[in-house]
Specification:
The protein has 374 residues and is of the alpha/beta class. The protein contains 14 helices and 15 strands. Strand 13 and strand 14 form a beta hairpin.
């Protein structure tokens, strides 16, 4: 039996791994043999030309044992201390596995604030995009050591979905001890019906199916997984919830193991452009010449050389409008430079940017992937 959705067609995949899969509950140690099979699965994806990002739970579960913390609920500062201890061990375990497949691991720690603050969001997105373009496999976890309750995700399901949205991933794979969504809590209920496929937006009926299953070390459950699905679908990414307890979990998904697929109605690129066009308030305008107008209409990015004037004040990553000299709006997009720096380089060649600003970020003032024509 094959999977309902062909995972091989996804160009960029985010894999979220739950604590219960990665950490042996009895001794708090990483399950190395299981992790080795996951590493082999990831290597197989990379060999097909697919990009992979890992969002891993387990740092607190590993660290708390090494710090001899109690098995009950931890205070925030205890969780942070456990995460600091455990993440080192987790990263080392992942690196040991991936290096055998000649893959480079890159650790990235993110807080909720990084996904909501525009400038931090752009910085995180650019870093991840660069790592992927260089062939690395980013390993992401919440930065529990510095995050307070107000700026924490609280669970890695939603963190993984935010990351998938941030990098315009095609697919989010959520591996846990659950094999998907049921119409009611399947624990002790033989009449629970498995839901193999959910298309489009989550209805109130689908959301009502979520139970409250949790592991001792985990903070998730079906409620947080459906919250993640809503984020992923809104960003045009598909998602699958699968039981990852057995070895080679990705291979098993592709072979048709029991799981729930969430299929979006839009692609990541179209969803992102709809967000830019309709959800963001422009903070300024870029006035362009006829040459730049023609370039934009042919699908190219906006370079500083084609800009004749700047209106308004904006920071890097803010939404702006692109207008003709007569004031007609021709596009909206996310700008790569602040208004202050943009005024210094408009009309200039990209080769002059570094000498003028003292640094060089991007050649484009607005990249075509961050722009929507009116």
């Amino acid at each position: 039996m094959s999977a309902l959705v062909d995972l091989s067609k996804s160009k960029r995949i985010v894999i979220k791994i739950g604590s219960a899969l990665l950490v042996d509950k009895a001794n708090g140690h990483v399950r190395h043999q299981w992790l080795e099979t996951l590493g082999a699965d990831i290597a197989a994806l990379r060999a097909r030309g697919q990009e992979v990002i890992i969002v891993s739970s387990g740092a607190i579960a590993v660290g708390r044992r090494h710090l001899n913390l109690s098995s009950g609920k931890l205070r925030l500062e205890e969780s942070q201390a456990a995460a600091a201890t455990g993440m080192v061990r987790l990263a080392h375990a992942y690196q040991e596995v991936l290096v055998t497949h000649d893959l480079t691991l890159a650790q990235v720690l993110i807080t909720l604030d990084d996904s909501e603050n525009r400038r931090r969001y752009i910085n995180a997105r650019n870093t991840l995009q660069t790592l992927l373009s260089l062939g690395a496999v980013p390993l992401i976890n919440e930065n529990d050591t510095v995050a307070t309750d107000e700026i924490r995700f609280g669970d890695n399901d939603r963190l993984a979905a935010r990351v998938a949205a941030m990098v315009s991933a095609d697919m989010l794979v959520v591996l846990s001890h659950m094999d998907g969504l049921y119409d009611r809590d399947p624990t002790g209920n033989d009449n629970a019906i498995h839901i193999p496929l959910v298309k489009g937006e989550l209805t109130p009926e689908i959301e009502a199916m979520a139970g409250a299953l949790k592991s001792a070390d985990g903070t998730g459950g079906m409620v947080t997984k459906l919250a993640a699905a809503k984020i992923a679908l809104g960003a045009g990414a598909g998602m699958v919830i699968a039981n990852g307890t057995e070895e080679h979990p990705i291979q098993r998904i592709e072979a048709g193991s029991l799981c729930t697929w969430f299929v979006p109605t839009a692609s990541p690129k179209s969803a992102r452009k709809l967000w830019i066009a309709g959800s963001l308030k422009p903070n300024g305008s870029l006035i362009v010449d006829e040459g730049a107008l023609g370039a934009l209409q042919s699908g190219k990015s906006l370079l500083p050389a084609g800009i004749t004037a700047i209106k308004g004040e904006f920071d890097r990553g803010d939404a702006i409008t692109v207008c003709t000299a007569s004031g007609a709006e021709i596009a909206r997009g996310l700008v790569a430079y602040s208004a202050e720096d943009a005024r210094k380089i408009i009309g200039k060649k990209t080769s002059e940017i570094e000498s003028i600003l003292g640094y060089r970020r991007r050649d484009e003032m607005v990249h075509r992937d961050d722009m929507v024509l009116s």
